[in-house]
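Q&A FORM
Asked by: J.P.
Topic: structure of DUF5641 domain-containing protein

PROVIDED:
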Amino acid sequence: MDQQVQEELLEANMQTEGSRGKERAPSEVSSKRSLSSSKSSVASAAAKARASAEAARAKMAFAKRQLEMKKEKARLEQERATVEANLEALELERDAAAALAEAEVLEAAAMERDDNRSEISTLSSHVISKRTEEYVKQQTQMSSDFSTLPLNISSATCAQESAPRLIDKSQSMNAAYDGDTNTVQERNRLYDSERLQSTRLSPYNLPHSLPNAAFKASPHQDPASKRCTAQPDTRYYSQSQATPMLDFAKFIARRELVTTGLTKFDDNPENFRAWESSFVNATKDLQLSASEELDLLVKWLGKESSDHVRRIRAVYVTNPQAALQMSRTRLHECYATPEVIERALFTRLDNFLRLSPKDNVKLRELADLLMEILAAKGDAYLPGLAYLDTPRGITPIVEKLPSSLQEKWLYAGSRFKTRTCAGSMETAGRKAVGFQIETLDGKTCLDLPPLIECNEIMSNRSEIPTPEVALAHPHLKTVAQFIPKLDPDAQILVLLGRDMIRVHKVRQQINGPHDAPFAQRLDLGWVIVGDVCIERANKPMVSVFKTHILDNGRPSLLTPCQSHIKVKEKLCHGGEHKSGVFPHAFNHATEGVQAEDKLGLKVFDRTKNDNKPAMSFEDETFLEIMQAEFHQDEQKNWVAPLPFRSPRPLLPNNREQALSRLNSLRRTLSRNLEMKKQFSAFMEKLFQNHHAERAPPIYEDEECWYLPIFGVYHPQKPGEIRVVFDSSAQYQGISLNNVLLSGPDLNNSLLGVLLRFRKDRIAIMADIQQMFYGFLVKEDHRNYLRFLWYCDGNLSKEVVDYRMRVHVFGNSPSPSVAIYGLWLAAKRGEQEYGTDTSHFVNRHFYVDDGLVSFPTEAEAIDLLKRTEESLSKSNIKLHKIASNSVKVMQTFLPEDLASGLQDLNFGNESWPAQRSLGLYWDIKSDTFTFKVAANNEPYTHRGVLSVVNSLFDPLGFVAPVTIRGRALVRELTKEVHDWDAVFPEEKENMWEEWKTSLQKLSNLHITRTYLDYSLSNAPYTELCVFSDALSWAIGAVAYLRALTDEGEVKVGFVLGKAKLSPRPEPSVPRLELCGAVLAVEMAEHILDELDHKPNAVKFFCDSKVVLGYIYNQSRRFFVYVHNRVQRIRQSTSPNQWSYVPTVQNPADLATRSVITSQLNDTIWFTGPSFLYQQPQEQQCEFFEMVNPETDAEVRPCVTSFATRVERSLFSERFQRFSTWESLLRAVSFLIHQACSHTSSSISTSHTCKGWHQCSKIDTPEEQTAAKRLILLHAQKELYPEEYTALQRNGKVSHSSALWNLDPYIDDGLLRVGGRLKHASIESEVKNPIIIPKQSHVAKLLVSYHHSKVHHQGRQFTEGAIRQAGLWIVGGKRLINSILHRCVACRRLRGKQEVQKMADLPPERLSTSPPFTYVGLDVFGPWTVVTRRTRGGVAENKRRAILFTSKQLRSDRGTNFIGASQELGMQPAKENQTSLLKYLHENGCTWEFNPPHASHMGGAWERMIGVTRRILDGMLLQKKHAHLTHEVLCTLMAEVSAIINARPLVPVSADPYSPFILTPAMLLTQKPIVPVQFENYTEKDLLKCQWKRVQALANEFWSRWRKEYISTLQPRRKWHETHRNLHPGDVVLLKQVQSPRNDWPLGLITSVFPGNDGRVRKVEVRTTSGSNVKTFLRPISDVILLLAKEE
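REPLIED BY: S.T.
REPLY: Here is the structure written out as tokens.
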């Protein structure tokens, strides 16, 4: 059976190969076209034949297995059913295997046909036939020899597995059934494993066709050997025999690798790099074509990413390679750039939800995500992930963790880097909050943000400033006292970063020289910025990294590769494509960006010069011409061309015009011999200096131009003529200047040169000699500068043609050419003589005049010498040097000095003033002055303008004077328009007065320097600009404010400006705004030109309207105001603007005008006084707009309101009611109206409908509903959590204030639960309604029930509230506060006002003679018997007056008031008596205490009390006797003796101090106890009497100071300070004669504070009907009812 199958297979193979050979052997004489078609059919037939052969071979293998199964069937009949089932399954597998083999062969044949088509097409028919024949023979030989092949199967091959193995599927199947394993499952497993092994075969070792043989495994092999595959000996196979199946093996291996080694991309950027790596590894050795790789990309990419590839493939249909490259680029852009990957990772982090303690799975997912990010962060490809190392980046991640893990995570994982100027270090830390930091003086205390607490902190102390460092620099000596010494033992505990902005804000700064450190005052103290090491003792280490920008725009420390080129395909005009190769040029960070991506990159870029004037295109052309043709000749002269326009018309020959102008000039010179002499001398000098030469003859058709000449005089130099070449003279409608480019304005600003000239102490002025003539004209262009002049300068000789060799006056480009050449000459010499020489020429010259200032003489001499030598290299001479320093001028040759200084002996002689740039400079006094020539110009338009314009004042020194002249010109020219018409006479006097005042300007001297020392050395400077406006003018003035090293403030005038307002005049606010704009423009110009940057720029304006405009943020203006406010805000910020009163605004002088003689006496040159105060931190003051509703400049604001109806009533609306009754009425009214609009109502008797004003009384139902609604909203607002909890589960939180009340809800209201459930009392009292004390309703209820109990105490009020069924939480404190503020209670029970006891008056503490200060009072009366009558006695009343010590003091008794008026103790009068004169001459005064203030006369009031007690004791003994006047006087004498004998201090027990200090000692100069003296003679008594008196007086006053005054020190009462009464307070005025309920209400109108500021006396106004009375009372007689603030 096996032999038969083999023969059938061999026959089938021969038939297949034969048919294939036949198909490959067509006729050789056929045409190429038929050959091509036959090749296709032959290939198809060959493929089918091969497929049939493979199918037969597969059938053969299964047929053999069927035979085996039949044998088993015969031998094992008992297993028949099983075997039959296996046979049926095997038949199915056979058919499937046959179909699969046929399909594989067909696919392999199709690929082989495609790959070999080109090769076959090149072979001839003879070769094809020969190869077919050889192939048939080879297959025949193989089939015949296959059965005799030796096999070399050993177990060793299984162990080695080093050489490739050839496996036959049929052999594997047979081996499986020959062994112990007989099940179908084992058979299928072996078949699958063999298929897998077949896919791993090397494509170079596979045979073209498998041998037709079966291999069986020995039944005695072990299981390991069973898994080994039998391996035939391949020695009998040649290489040529194995190659035909190469393509088939490649296909099989490719298909298996692709299907098993790839995964599908999920469109997540963070996974793209891993997927791309696996895709490349799986396909790199398969030699895939571009189309195949595109197919695989579409198959294995995600939905979104595969769409990209499909779209690109559709575009590049004919170019798969380009499609593949573009697809790779697109995928990298969308999924592989660092930004995309970082954004994807951050998005995953952000979308991760916060974890709970039980989310273990989610916690693991977060950990995996963080590990993924950590691994990605380790790759330098994703630098953006470093953001997660910062606290701001890591905080959101930590917040996603459970609370229990956050602190642990921070403790264990908070590793961070600390970077300071001392370096960086990495450490670990924890989070700490709630810390504060305080300065050493304790004045500033700041809250610190959350801190990162770490175990270690950097302790580099080398950058900490010390007092020694500050003392090492002169400008920092003043701050050395504020810097503490460095404590080496002190620990560094806190590092404050930029997240705490306030501690880094600079409050004050002290600058110094350019390279010196500077000091800054922060909130925590002074710091020094710069090299803090003394005299640079240490060498700082600086690490510098150069950052490169890669082609993709990313920065990198690595140097980009320069060895690459960029190829860009460009479409040419002919339609064909050409490749252009451009070398790489790394010029910009966007070099690697596509050309279309560069579009618009710089469209919106802005620079600081955007608003400054720019050059025109003609100006740029001029510069290009100069750069190309400006050069130096062999004699070191600079040669420049004439910059002609392009294109331009040809110039005609205008010799005829020049000759005519020369004849006219000759006639003029013939009439003026002096002018002729000067003119001829100028021309002679022109030829001598070789500035002009005889012109060569003109060739035919050669272009030339003749310049007419004329002479001009300078107004200040009448003896010198200057010949001007008229380049503007037109001939035939054209001139030389018409065809020349005038060039840009290269000149410095005249104002800028003058501003810089005033900076420093040493000033220098210099000039370029004949600047225009210092630059030659290009040889080819000299014929355009031809002119006519007489031979030898003799006007009677012939006319000769000359031409200029240099650039001339009159040519429009000559100034630009000369300035450009001067800059070029200075630039050429800066390498040898320094860049400062070039800077001096470029920055400090105005045309040919140079003005500069220096801090020192040495710097001035050095720079001027080097500049002089540098310019001399270009044959340019610097001369006319002048300086305010004798040393500087003596350094230079006399001929180089200015005129008037060359032969001057710099001693006591007066130095001539130097004039430059229109200013007169007195170099000896270093001041500016004015020289106004006395002119008699006519009183006409022309004459008036001539006088006004003759005063040149570029710095605005006399702006307040000149503005008046310009205003007069405007007034005079209002009606007269003719230039020579005489103005009206009514204003001639005013004009003459102003014109005459100009002569006094010669007496005005303004210091040249801003300050009395160099501005460059000022450590702190401010620019202060003031503005103002009137209806006819606006003005501005600027000052420099500087702080010296000694702390002194200096102020200097900088610039002033005044301008007339236009006609008709705008409104004053608009003019004030224009003045502010003028101030801003002035400040900008000063900052641009001064070359000094002040520390601050401040603006001052006296118009709060304008300040409101500037500070405004929301209101809209009209265009006029808006444009100017925008101009101001464009350059300044609102906090730079401040208000200044008009009297302190110097700009007000510029608008009001000042006469010349008074200008020096104003603040115009000195500035306001507040500028001289120490600079302080400016307080930010916000200025509101002034009456914006009525301001015509503010657009009206239309406001629309939307009404929104709330469904619930908020309790905050209850605060609009002051009583419970009004609130209840209002809510009841609302309920009534609501019921009127609804069908249902709370009362069945409700008959009202619609909105109406109801006159009915509120029903009880409505009042109850209103009360419930009010209390319900009050409870819900303040107890929302408790209310919600009770609605849900009936319990409140333990932390709630209602926990102890056991609350519950009844009818929607919170009520007290408590324990009185079974009490037999009303339910309202048993379970009262809970009311929060914080609500306004509680206050209203307390006031209501308090009034119900008629303002009784707290107990009555609280009981009334409880009886009403209300429970106010914390009600006692609320009731106390309500009662304390109750006016009625104060009126009933309020205490009288008191104040801390005042200090004793000076008269009670001074050592003065007796009765210098007298306090008196009258007391009594007593009835005395005056005479006896028949019926009895006549009695009168007597009163006593008590003097307790020149000044009288008493209360306001009517008798005292009358006595004071009678004595005339008022200002002295002419007709007063001698007594009154005596009193006034001795300064006697009478002071009165306020009424009802007996305590203010405490000293005598106490004496009166003592006197009464003594008298009572005496009269008690004589109560039955009649008291007469004499007896009473005697009693009074005894009382006086007793009172004056009282001890002033406690009696001492010291035996050495027997004297008792009493008032009698002061009166009598005698002690109470007589002192025993020795016996003195009468002479001795007369001699020593005064000593005795003096000793007694000294003894008294010494003890008085030591013993008595100390007893007055303590206050017996009134120890505390109370609130002062204020005007407007409502008080109750005490009246002793009336009951308290009748005391009147009063209003305090004025108060009288004492020396200590406390009020003890007030003036009270009361009203009774129409009667208004005013009382002066002490505060003890008033009761405060309602304070003013209440």
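FOLLOW-UP: Residues 498 and 504 are 7 Å apart (CA to CA).
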